[in-house]
Amino acid sequence: MALPDGPGPSRLLMQLTWVAGAIGFWLGFDAWQDGDIAAATNNVTLWVVGIVGVISFLRHAVFHRSDAKRMGWDYGKRNDFQLEVGFANLAWGLCGLIAWAQNWNLQAQGALLLVFGIYMAQAAALHLTEPGRAASKGTTAFFAGCLLFFGSLALMQ
After folding, report:
1. 155 close to 107: Cβ distance less than 8 angstroms
2. b/e map of 115-139 (b: 16 or more CB within 10 Å)?
3. Could you tell me which residue, 129 or 35, shows the higher pLDDT?
4. Cβ-based neighbours of 35, under 8 Å, separated by 6 or more
5. Within a domain: 126
6. Which of 28, 32, 47, 93 sees the fewest Cβ atoms within 10 Å?
């Protein structure tokens, strides 16, 4: 059975990505305001790195044709670059879930947050060269900045 290749499935997965990220950052900033850096880091690691990473893998790799259509990249054939991005998402997503489940220390989680944050900052910079999509550019830059903030915060403990 072939997976649906219209833009709908990847659009839903993209929306779930933003919801999971928003939950993680909300909980992270809430814990940070209470002075609980460990809880802030754990929340961001679980939701923003772990869950977002796995959902992004599904969007980029499993539903790659749907995602290509959503982004306007449908060339009528498999785009291996999209698959590679999906595999990277899965790598840090699984590491995020493992880090949260095994309660890695703040420095290890901070390094993981920085890896994802640096990647997203580079993606945001790349997107700035594209025409249009102002909301997407701003959201990606904010997402990257929050990851870099929480990663740095954890490493300074």
Report:
1. yes
2. bbbebbbeebeeeeeeeeeeeebee
3. 35
4. none
5. yes
6. 32
